[in-house]
């Protein structure tokens, strides 16, 4: 099996790697794993080609092609248990069989550890009072040097200090290598900064982690004293009182466990967009290219749809006069069906958008709160972590119900939802920038939002002068979606919701050779 990935810029397929060859079988179970960086906010296209090997040649054209499968990395991780089964295609009129692709996140040491230490009978260093002890932790590096990774607080005037518990990522303590040395030095604090060295001891994360079931005691030794004095025993002891290990869960843990992401679109039909039949209108339907609304909708929607199993998206409009009686509506279904506002796939949403442009009359004013409250009503019904809602609002400008919109966002910030706002056209987007809440957390009548759930971008920042829409829209999607996994995790964590273990997944630790400290999330297929 040969894996190809696609470059974002010019969409060319590049060979990423090949599995081993398995002889004489029609049901190969490949051992070779492909390790890829995973980004929620990007569309990462993959292609799997299968070949029947006829000779030792590396040239694929010398072998028989057996079929292929196209997908995105998001589709694989978004499947239940991150396991996806698809038919192979590529040979006309022939059933090529199926391929099963599984992904697992590489646990690049996601543990944090909460530890508490105390000291006993430490050496007295101060002439007048007792010592003022504190601890300094160092992790050892490959080359034998040490890097400081933690300092405790100072406990004043005692030889038997109890330090406060502290939490530290295991990566910081030992770089993911459980047997690597950790050096701990004990000092007596001095006001002038010339802290006196009391002594040191050495341990490893493996030894520390036994502290969850027993006290561990170390002798604090001062090598200089040991050399000088025959009768020297130690400079006191340090005891690990407690040790709790906490595994940091990730966005993918929830997706793998079956959490669904529900995507809703809301489109601005106010008159300030301009008459849709005129080329100057932001809603102009040209036979040759998509308008800004359609481009933004497709850029964001195509990525989120991989995480939504039914691919049915409610699509709403606001600020228009509806047929037959011309009443103004601030939350109407684009497909004209209030009982079933769902559209099939992103293409279905675009189709409904074009149809509604033909039947409604652009009007106003621009009210955001009705569509926010619409999604919030659904989100308030599933607070158990099984679903998360993303509302994409595309609008051309000045918000007329700013106070109500802020109130709606503050209310929504305690629900499983995030809001993406894309501003189209040349207007000033001051209110939208304020709603984004990156600078100042948004508040309404003295209540602050529980978390930041709004992400705003102006569409004009992404228009490619050379007309390369693919690249510029990929950048837009990246910027609006990059914050979603963190907003999602904030909701789950502050509600104490743990990921579900899906029926398929067998908990198998990746072999230790794979556990490298890597920063981007990695998945193996």
Automatic annotation (TrEMBL):
Annotated Pfam families: C2, Copine
A GO term from the CC aspect: plasma membrane
Listed InterPro entries: C2_dom (IPR000008), C2_domain_sf (IPR035892), C2B_Copine (IPR037768), Copine (IPR045052), Copine_C (IPR010734), VWF_A (IPR002035), vWFA_dom_sf (IPR036465)
Start and end residues of each C2 domain: 1-88, 95-219
Composition bias, Low complexity: 502-513
Residue span of region Disordered: 499-525
Gene Ontology molecular function terms on file: calcium-dependent phospholipid binding; metal ion binding
CDD domains linked: C2A_Copine, C2B_Copine, vWA_copine_like
One annotated GO biological process: cellular response to calcium ion
Keywords on record: Calcium, Metal-binding, Repeat
Family statement: Belongs to the copine family.
Protein's UniProt name: C2 domain-containing protein
């Amino acid at each position: 099996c040969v894996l190809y990935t696609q470059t974002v810029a010019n969409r060319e397929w590049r060979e990423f790697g090949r599995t081993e060859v398995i002889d004489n079988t029609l049901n190969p179970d490949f051992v070779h794993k492909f390790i890829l960086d995973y980004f929620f906010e990007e569309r990462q296209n993959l292609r799997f080609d299968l070949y029947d090997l006829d000779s030792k040649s590396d040239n694929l054209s010398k072998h028989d092609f057996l079929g292929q499968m196209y997908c995105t990395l998001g589709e694989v991780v978004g499947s239940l248990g991150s396991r996806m089964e698809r038919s192979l295609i590529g040979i006309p009129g022939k059933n090529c069989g199926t391929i099963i692709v599984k992904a697992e996140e590489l646990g690049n040491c996601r543990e944090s550890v909460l530890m508490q230490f105390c000291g006993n009978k430490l050496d007295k260093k101060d002439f007048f009072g007792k010592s003022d002890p504190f601890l300094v932790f160092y992790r050892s590096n490959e080359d034998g040097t040490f890097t400081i990774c933690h300092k405790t607080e100072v406990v004043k005037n005692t030889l038997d200090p109890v330090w406060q518990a502290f939490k530290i990522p295991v990566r910081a303590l030992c770089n993911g290598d459980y047997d690597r040395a950790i050096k701990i030095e004990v000092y007596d604090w001095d006001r002038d900064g010339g802290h006196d060295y009391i002594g040191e001891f050495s341990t490893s994360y493996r030894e520390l982690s036994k502290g969850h079931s027993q006290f561990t005691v170390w002798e604090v030794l001062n090598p200089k004293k040991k050399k000088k004095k025959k009768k020297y025993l130690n400079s006191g002891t340090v005891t690990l009182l407690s040790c709790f290990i906490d595994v940091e869960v990730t966005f993918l843990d929830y997706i793998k466990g079956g959490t669904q992401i529900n995507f809703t679109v809301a489109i601005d039909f106010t008159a300030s967009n301009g008459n849709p039949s005129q080329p100057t209108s932001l809603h102009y339907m040209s036979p040759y290219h998509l308008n800004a609304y359609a481009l933004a909708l497709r850029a964001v929607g195509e990525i989120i749809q991989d995480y939504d199993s039914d691919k049915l998206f409610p699509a709403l409009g606001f600020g228009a006069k509806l047929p037959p009686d011309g009443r103004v509506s601030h939350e109407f279904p684009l497909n004209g069906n209030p009982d079933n506002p769902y559209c099939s796939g992103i293409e279905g949403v675009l189709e409904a958008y074009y149809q509604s442009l033909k039947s409604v009359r652009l009007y106003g004013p621009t009210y955001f709160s009705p569509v926010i409250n619409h999604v919030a009503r659904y989100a308030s019904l599933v607070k158990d972590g099984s679903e998360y809602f993303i509302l994409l609002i595309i609008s051309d400008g000045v918000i007329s119900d700013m106070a109500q919109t802020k109130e709606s966002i503050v209310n929504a910030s305690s629900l499983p939802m995030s809001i993406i706002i894309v501003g189209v056209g040349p207007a000033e987007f001051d209110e939208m920038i304020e709603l984004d809440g990156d600078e100042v957390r948004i508040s309404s009548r003295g209540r602050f939002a529980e978390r930041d759930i709004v992400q705003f971008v102006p569409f004009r920042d992404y228009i490619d002068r050379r007309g390369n829409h693919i690249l510029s829209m990929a950048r837009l999607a990246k910027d609006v979606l990059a914050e979603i996994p963190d907003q999602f995790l904030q909701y789950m964590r502050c509600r104490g919701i743990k990921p579900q273990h899906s029926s398929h997944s067998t908990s198998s630790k990746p072999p230790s050779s794979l556990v490298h400290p890597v920063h981007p999330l990695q998945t193996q297929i």
